[in-house]
Amino acid sequence: MSNMSGRAKIEALLKLANGAAQEAMALYEQDGMEVPSIDSTGPHPLDNAMDTVALKMAIRTLEGACGQICSTLAPPSHTAINLVQVYDYACIRVVLRENISDILVDYPKGIHVNDLSKIIDVDPLKLSRMLRLLSTRGCFTEVDTDVFANNRLSLILNSSNPVRHMISLHVEACAKGAGVYYETLKEPGYAYSYEPSAAPIMHAIKPLGIEGTFFDWMRMDDDRRVSYHTSMRGLNGIMGSLAVLTQYPFEKFSTVVDVGGGIGAFSLPLAKTHKHVNITIHDLPEALVQSRTTWARDCPEAVAENRVDFLPLNFFEEAPVKGKEIYYLRNIIHDWPDNEAALILRNVRQAMGPHSRLLVHDYVLRQLSRKQAEVEAETLGATIAPEPMLPNFGVGNMRMYQQDMTMLLLHNAKERTLRDSLELADSAGLKLEKVWDLAEAYVLEFVVAA
Questions:
Q1: Angle of the 418-427 helix axis to the 370-380 helix axis, nearest 10
Q2: φ and ψ at 293, to 5 degrees?
Q3: What residue numbers bound the domain in which 49 lies?
Q4: Which pLDDT value is given to residue 2?
């Protein structure tokens, strides 16, 4: 296949893209529903489905094939400038700060920018340019000249949607870190450091007199802390994280420990889906305050039935509650450099009994070398993209590589390859038992090593 002509490769990619699009449309049309359009004014039921593995697999191929076609056929200068001439984040920041999506809910037929500008006190000409850019991306609809309305995509930015808080984290904190990324690659004390206190975000806010780590900064402001923990619920929709509740056999287990569980992005849906499970949520005391409030509001029956315990834990200094069946870490290990990540795993290992399981739910970075990808796929049991696609699905898996940069910018940490994860686990006395492929993220299941 590597000897295919350029035309043959494009034809093969077009076939892959068409097949993936047909599969995605069939999934949207299940149960008598319709395929959404760019002008859809409300969510599709599949948007909020718990298990979206099949859809994510189709979209991974669709995005990867389409991206590779465009990068191949477009002039290189065209593609290169598209990598950097991207101001969507600046426009989205305005939308979030001014709650534009919330305002447009009251104007289902749209509102003229002149009227919207009076509500939010933003110049109408600048506002229309911003909204037209986003509408061109498919976020908002220009229903008439300078008249804009919500659509399925812009409703994600509504204040009631937890994904909005993850987007806010990126346009605020990540953007600050990205702005000084080059400087941190060169300046003494930052260039070769992997200390969380030397992350680019901390360099960016140091002139404000702020020191420590991202988590220290986050805890300094109650609104920022609440938004951060809410953003973890937003990851469910972005990563398709809740598919673990249907893909993994939780029905076989009765105790689950959510280590660093925050307000319950994982364990709240777990309590509603598997009502036989007793849950322990471990986190720092200030996080548990918000967690208790959230559970009392969203799952009071679990609290009343004593199916959930809230126990403070500093996972660097002590082990979780001992002898439970499942220990679950979602998006925890990726927050920390190797030394800290290994310490967390060692402390969890101390709590585990001979029949305990540790589930590490994170991205697993795939290789671009097809030879290496085949070796890892044999271990992972994961799908390699068919030729002539890049073996890691190219931009179809772009979020995991962008997330890797997010971890660097905020924490001086990283997403890990399978080899990275196995080395950390081995140092903690853990053995890989099975890998669960959820199409975007993976769940690595570990047991105590003999």
A1: 50
A2: -65, -45
A3: 8-73
A4: 65
